[in-house]
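Title: Comparing notes on inverse folding

I've been comparing how different people in this forum approach sequence design from structure. To keep things fair, I'm posting one structure and asking everyone to reply with a full sequence. Here's the target:
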């Protein structure tokens, strides 16, 4: 009979040390050894999904084909594993409680007291098992968000403990830890890891492997220390030093035989297969010398004194994949939109870029700056690619400055003027009632491409599916007037008559998409539109 094995991954010491990528990398290794792999991300937030979280706090909202608004780690899983995930692969504290409470209201617990323990962990376990069943997976990787010792993820650790206790032969537990090197000491310290494992032990969980993240490789004496104090065989303490780029991590894990070690623990034979294509990609990227300069005009960059790039993670990755495919190293620069509001000198600075991207976004802050930047790209023949909001703003710019609709605007920013970007009638009602959660066009929708258009040339077919996440749409009332002036709406959702792509044929590259193509780009399968943009940028 087919048996699914469960690999839990939790973080010790601190967050942000690459648990998601570690999870994806373990998955990649097992996949390339010929096993089927699924993954589940657990976010310990009350938010029912990631849709209502600010990207500056939580990072990008990654949307799956079925419209689940999930965590950016699902994007990592998709890129590393080269497949799509869905609702069963993501849960939050909020939606687990939501299910349990609804079930209680339906009398499904038959009069029993419904308790945090065991009912919440039982629901978590049943979801983890569903993910395995759906894919008939040999392995399900379960990444528990947050850090060991936090109040928030205790119930998820409890679920792991219950599974480990009831079927130890099916469960493997990995702790991703961090070994700091304080500059005043200059030595790698293992104590925080020891403490984190002790905390994990208090929760009744025994780790099978420690991935020791650090600036530098972890040497033998430190591995010994961790092994001795944490009850882990020394060869299960994995050295995971910082790398130049994340796609190298599976290759590094493979050098430490992470896959073989996991298989042996489960009594499975190592197939000795390895990731040829992936390794070749990593090799190639390392050897690239020519650079292409891409500017991203956006606003979700700064938090305090720090610049965070996570809000646009998939966009950055998609740029990289396409640049690598064209044998270039991308040099990405963050351009804060507000500087283009009144400053024509700043606009001229755009000339130094080979291409400009205006990614998705919400709200009016920075929008006029983005519109000016887009106008500059249009007039100066700088390759431009607009993603979602980027398309909407490109249409506003074109309407105002080419089609003479000078009061062109979006309902997202104002109620007045010519709303070339508007909401669908059914959404208007929900917005009035302030029902923001889940009022967007989400997930994959069909799009038909116009033969001969640039979009069609890129995809080389006419029927595509791409993922959406937005409330507003191009207002069809203005479509003809824009077309008369030369904008080509080359992608249409026929079912609902909605514009999906706008492009200008008499420009080196000027395109905007209502969908988010970046969500489907993968290192071994770059997105056709990003590749087309990159071809223009490197010309
Ligand atoms: N704010 C815009 C909308 O809701 C664009 C959203 C986006 O860029 N993802 O339609």
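Reply #1:
Here's my take.
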């Amino acid at each position: 009979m087919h048996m699914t094995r469960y690999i839990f991954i939790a973080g010790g010491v601190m967050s942000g040390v690459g648990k998601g990528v570690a999870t994806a990398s373990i998955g990649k290794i097992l996949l390339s050894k010929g096993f089927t792999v699924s993954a589940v991300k657990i976010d310990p937030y009350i938010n029912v999904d990631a849709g209502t979280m600010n990207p500056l706090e939580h990072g990008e909202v990654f949307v799956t084909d079925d419209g689940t608004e999930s965590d950016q780690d699902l994007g990592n899983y998709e890129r590393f594993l080269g497949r799509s995930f869905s609702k069963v692969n993501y849960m939050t504290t909020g939606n687990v409680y939501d299910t349990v409470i609804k079930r209680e209201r339906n009398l499904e617990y038959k009069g029993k007291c419904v308790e945090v323990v065991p009912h919440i962990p039982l629901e978590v376990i049943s979801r983890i098992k569903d993910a395995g069943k759906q894919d008939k997976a040999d392995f399900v990787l379960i990444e528990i968000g947050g850090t060991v010792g936090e109040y928030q993820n205790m119930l998820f650790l409890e679920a792991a403990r219950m599974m480990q206790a009831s079927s130890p032969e099916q469960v493997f537990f990995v702790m991703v830890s961090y070994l700091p090197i304080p500059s005043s000491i200059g030595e790698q310290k293992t104590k925080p890891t020891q403490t984190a494992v002790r905390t994990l032990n208090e929760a009744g969980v025994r780790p099978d492997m420690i991935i020791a993240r650090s600036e530098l490789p972890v040497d033998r004496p430190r591995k010994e220390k961790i092994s001795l104090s944490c009850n882990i065989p020394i060869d299960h303490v994995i050295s995971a030093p910082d790398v130049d780029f994340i796609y190298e991590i599976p290759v590094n894990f493979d050098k430490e035989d992470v896959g073989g070690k996991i298989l042996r623990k489960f009594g499975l034979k190592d197939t000795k297969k390895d990731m040829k294509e992936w390794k070749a990609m990593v090799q190639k990227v390392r050897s690239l010398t020519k650079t292409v300069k891409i500017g991203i005009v956006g606003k979700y960059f700064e938090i305090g004194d720090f610049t965070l790039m996570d809000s646009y993670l998939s966009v950055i990755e998609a740029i990289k994949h396409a640049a690598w495919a064209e044998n270039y190293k991308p040099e990405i620069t963050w351009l804060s939109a507000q500087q283009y509001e009144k400053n024509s000198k700043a606009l001229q600075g755009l000339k130094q870029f080979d291409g400009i991207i205006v990614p998705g976004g919400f709200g009016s802050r920075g929008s006029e700056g983005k519109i000016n930047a887009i106008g500059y790209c249009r007039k100066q023949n700088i390759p431009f690619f607009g993603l979602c909001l980027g398309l909407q703003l490109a249409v506003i710019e074109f309407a105002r400055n080419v089609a003479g609709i000078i009061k062109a605007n979006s309902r997202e920013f104002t109620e007045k003027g010519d709303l070339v970007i508007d909401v669908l009638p059914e959404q208007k009602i929900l917005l009035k009632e302030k029902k923001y959660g889940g009022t967007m066009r989400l997930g994959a929708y069909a799009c038909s491409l116009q033969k001969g258009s640039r979009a069609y040339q890129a995809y080389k077919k006419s029927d595509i599916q791409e993922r959406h996440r937005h409330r507003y749409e191009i207002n069809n009332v203005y479509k003809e007037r824009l077309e008369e002036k030369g904008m080509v709406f080359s992608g249409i959702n026929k079912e609902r008559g909605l514009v999906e792509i706008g492009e200008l044929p008499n420009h080196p590259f000027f395109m905007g998409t209502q969908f988010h193509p970046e969500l489907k780009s993968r290192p071994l399968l770059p997105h056709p539109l990003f590749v087309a943009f990159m071809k223009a940028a490197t010309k």
